[in-house]
């Protein structure tokens, strides 16, 4: 398809849909959900399960106006120190519950907010607590989301000593005007120095986060920023579409509406950024990742084992994901559970009730697991055999008809294909920006179009 035709067709669909880091999407989680359900799920994990752990650090010293993450702004360290104390209790609580079952941690991820707010001593304390209550696989991936502005030699060395082997650096862009508008001044040398410290500490695997669709971004400014980023030779790039949800995140109202690229420009920004990366030897993964061929994520994609979780794409397929800290989400074979976002409730639950600080959850029912598999495969592979998945779960193929019917406009526009004989749904590589829309055809809970503003735009 010619670029112009592709763009016209993709942009004709302006439906807002979830990012499908979970299915059902988080707004479906229910508040009448008991924390003891999660303990039951944890108890029922098979002996020797593979665990992925996530810890949320909800603090930043300065607010980026585009930020969609759950974080508090603080220039004081006391709240962070107090939080570490509660986190350690929460880790111990779940760790004790899971002990004696030969479970192995294959992945630990520090996300935020800014985990780099933790001073070396507190970071060490958290790692010691994890190691006290969990057994780590010798090849476990231990990753930290790093704000380059916080990195220094001492912190990098601490990460190296503690076995951190993957870093995700928040770059977003290098353009002065773009970054000043979003309240994040972070010139190239700041990122360069952060990478240098981390490499010197023995950490070689880097991901650089970029965002397209930021204020005043142009194809020229973005591709120039990416050229700079390539000098750092990261093993992966993430190129997220800016999710502008000012009705939900007040800080986004500080971004002038007329500074934001429109849908047409966003499309061009993504295509241009993707071309720079693909021409530089990075392979496109799913909707927003780019990795070197030898990267574990590329290998997982070739093997059909690429997964999707709350942090996005992953090459690690655990039996359960356990989240610690405010707002963190856990995923068990039976469903999802989300920790409270309220600091006091979090503290009370962990320190006084001895129960997981869960505020919401969702137990899979009906066709959820089959629909989740279809959506996961589409988001990861851009193709899926819907009959195969449906049959494995013993569902009636007639129940798929409503979803198949919803594919029609995309098929008519050449943005998706469906082979009725073998059940294969696929999306051409150059139309991958609409994969969330195709995935949405299999979402049983998507509310009517007029109530969809809880999500960001699909493209
Ligand atoms: C928790 S932050 C990374 C660590 C650190 N706080 C930082 O910003 O450097 C995770 C990533 O989410 C992405 N992000 C944040 N808000 C976003 C939004 N509204 N739309 C798209 N991506 C966003 C950014 O790329 C950011 O690097
Ligand atoms: S993007 Fe990162 S540093 Fe900026 S406010 Fe959000 S979490 Fe904090």
Architecture blueprint of SSEs:
Layout: H1 3-11, H2 35-43, E1 50-57, E2 59-60, E3 72-73, H3 78-98, E4 104-112, H4 120-133, E5 136-146, H5 153-161, E6 166-172, H6 176-181, H7 188-200, E7 206-212, H8 219-230, E8 236-241, H9 263-279, E9 283-285, E10 289-291, H10 296-303, E11 307-309, E12 312-314, E13 320-324, E14 329-332, E15 335-339, H11 343-353, E16 358-363, H12 368-381, E17 383-385, H13 386-392, H14 401-406, H15 408-412, E18 417-419, E19 424-426, H16 435-440
Parallel strand pairs: 1-4, 1-13, 2-3, 4-5, 5-6, 6-7, 7-8
Antiparallel strand pairs: 8-10, 9-10, 11-12, 14-15, 15-16, 17-19, 18-19
Helix pairs in contact: 3-4, 5-7, 8-9, 12-13
This protein binds S-adenosylmethionine (SAM) and iron/sulfur cluster.
Helical content (DSSP H or I, runs of 4+): 25-40%
Corresponding CATH superfamily of the largest domain? Aldolase class I
Strands, total number: 19
Task: Give the terminus-to-terminus CA distance.
Answer: 18 Å
Tell me the number of helical segments per DSSP (H or I, 4 or more residues long): 16
């Amino acid at each position: 398809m010619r670029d112009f035709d592709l763009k016209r067709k993709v942009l004709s669909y302006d439906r807002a849909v979830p990012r499908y880091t979970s299915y059902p999407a988080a707004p479906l989680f229910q508040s009448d959900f008991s924390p003891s359900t999660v303990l039951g799920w944890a108890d029922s994990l098979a002996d020797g399960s593979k665990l992925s752990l996530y810890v949320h650090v909800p603090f930043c010293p300065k607010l980026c106006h585009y930020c969609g993450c759950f974080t508090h702004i603080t220039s004081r360290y006391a709240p962070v120190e107090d939080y570490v104390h509660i986190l350690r209790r929460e880790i111990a609580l779940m760790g004790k519950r899971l002990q004696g079952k030969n479970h192995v941690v294959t992945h630990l991820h520090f996300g935020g907010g800014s985990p780099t707010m933790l001073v070396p001593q507190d970071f060490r304390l958290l790692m010691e607590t994890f190691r006290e209550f969990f057994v780590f696989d010798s090849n476990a991936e231990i990753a930290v989301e790093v704000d380059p502005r916080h990195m220094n030699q001492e912190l990098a060395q601490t990460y190296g000593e503690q076995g951190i082997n993957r870093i995700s650096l928040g770059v977003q862009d290098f353009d002065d005007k773009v970054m000043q508008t979003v309240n994040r001044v972070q010139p190239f040398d700041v990122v360069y120095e952060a990478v240098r410290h981390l490499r010197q500490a023995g950490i070689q695997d880097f991901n650089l986060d970029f965002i397209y669709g930021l204020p005043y971004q142009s194809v020229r400014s973005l591709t120039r920023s990416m050229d700079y980023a390539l000098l750092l030779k990261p093993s992966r790039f993430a190129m997220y579409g800016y999710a502008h949800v000012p009705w939900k995140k007040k800080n986004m109202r500080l971004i002038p509406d007329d500074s934001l690229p429109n849908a047409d420009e966003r499309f061009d920004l993504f295509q241009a950024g993707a071309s720079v990366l693909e021409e530089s030897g990075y392979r496109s993964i799913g909707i927003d990742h780019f990795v070197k061929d030898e990267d574990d994520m590329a290998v997982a994609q070739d093997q059909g084992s690429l997964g999707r979780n709350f942090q996005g794409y992953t090459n690690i397929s655990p039996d359960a994901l356990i989240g610690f800290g405010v707002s963190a989400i856990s995923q068990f074979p039976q469903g999802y559970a989300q920790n409270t976002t309220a600091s006091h409730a979090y503290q009370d639950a962990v320190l006084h009730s001895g129960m997981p600080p869960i505020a919401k959850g969702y137990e899979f029912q009906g066709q959820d697991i089959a629909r989740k598999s279809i959506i996961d495969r589409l988001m990861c592979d851009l193709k899926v055999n819907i009959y195969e998945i449906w049959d494995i779960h013993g569902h009636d193929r007639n129940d798929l008809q409503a979803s198949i019917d919803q594919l029609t406009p995309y098929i008519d526009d050449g943005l998706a294909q469906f082979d009725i004989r073998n059940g294969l749904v696929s999306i051409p590589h150059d139309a991958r920006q609409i994969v969330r829309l195709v995935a949405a055809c299999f979402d049983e809970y998507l509310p009517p179009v007029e109530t969809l503003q809880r999500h960001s735009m699909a493209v």
